[in-house]
């Protein structure tokens, strides 16, 4: 992984052209930074975060124990959300916006977004579907089919990109991960900052700070976010942690341990 903050001026000509093309073809851009464990408490204090204002989320990923779906570039999840309806999502990453079929690109269920962090950038297409929290709970407890959480459009999107002959109902439930999400605006920063604190079963945490912006503001927002976060004393050269990848790796390892114990 990269160890230096990548600024637009530091990208090669080809990299900058690629980033510009992705941003132009996307619906939005999200600037992200994960905070190392040893700096999380200080960061939360500095930002004056009130945990009682946070929204509770419960996230379940769906894959095989060997993460075959993830390796094909597809991520599948279902989510329960405090105070509003839950949802399901099928995400394809990485993608080039212009390569998506026209019906997918125009779908109101799809968001194409560029994620940018100090370690680089990637574009994804996420197709979401609102699902009652109670339905998600029943599905993960085995009382209803997992596929019932997904729309016909999502099922077709999944089938077009997931490994062949691997149906949604064949997937294993990986989770849950408990998440606290909070949106707030700091006086020193013009844009709304989103904080997500992900709690993993082994006691580790990922704290991610992010700001979603329109594509026309991506570079300006990136520079503003960088200046603001550096002003907080955050190390922008620290190794970045990916929330989904970390969760999938953890639960895959847990399942493999269980299989080993069963064999022995």
Order of helices and strands: HEHEHEEHEEHHEEEHH
The coarse silhouette is globular
CATH homologous superfamily annotation: Hypothetical Protein Pfu-838710-001
Alpha carbon gyration radius:
19 Å
Q: Helical segment tally?
A: 8
Spell out the blueprint of helices and strands.
Layout: H1 13-24, E1 28-35, H2 37-46, E2 55-63, H3 68-71, E3 74-81, E4 86-92, H4 102-106, E5 110-117, E6 120-131, H5 133-140, H6 152-161, E7 172-185, E8 192-199, E9 205-213, H7 218-231, H8 243-263
Parallel strand pairs: 1-5
Antiparallel strand pairs: 1-9, 2-3, 2-7, 3-4, 4-6, 5-6, 7-8, 8-9
Offer a few descriptive terms.
alpha+beta; 32% helix; 264 residues; 8 helices; disordered N terminus; Hypothetical Protein Pfu-838710-001
Describe the protein:
With 264 residues, the protein is an alpha+beta fold. The chain has a single domain, classed as Hypothetical Protein Pfu-838710-001, CATH 2.40.320.10. The chain contains 8 helices and 9 strands. The protein has helices at residues 13-24, 37-46, 68-71, 102-106, 133-140, 152-161, 218-231, 243-263, and strands at residues 28-35, 55-63, 74-81, 86-92, 110-117, 120-131, 172-185, 192-199, 205-213. A 9-stranded mixed barrel has the order 1-5-6-4-3-2-7-8-9, surrounded by 6 helices. It is globular, with a radius of gyration of 19 Å. Mean pLDDT is 89; it is low at 1-9.
What's a concise summary of this model?
With 264 residues, this protein is α+β, with helices and mostly antiparallel strands.
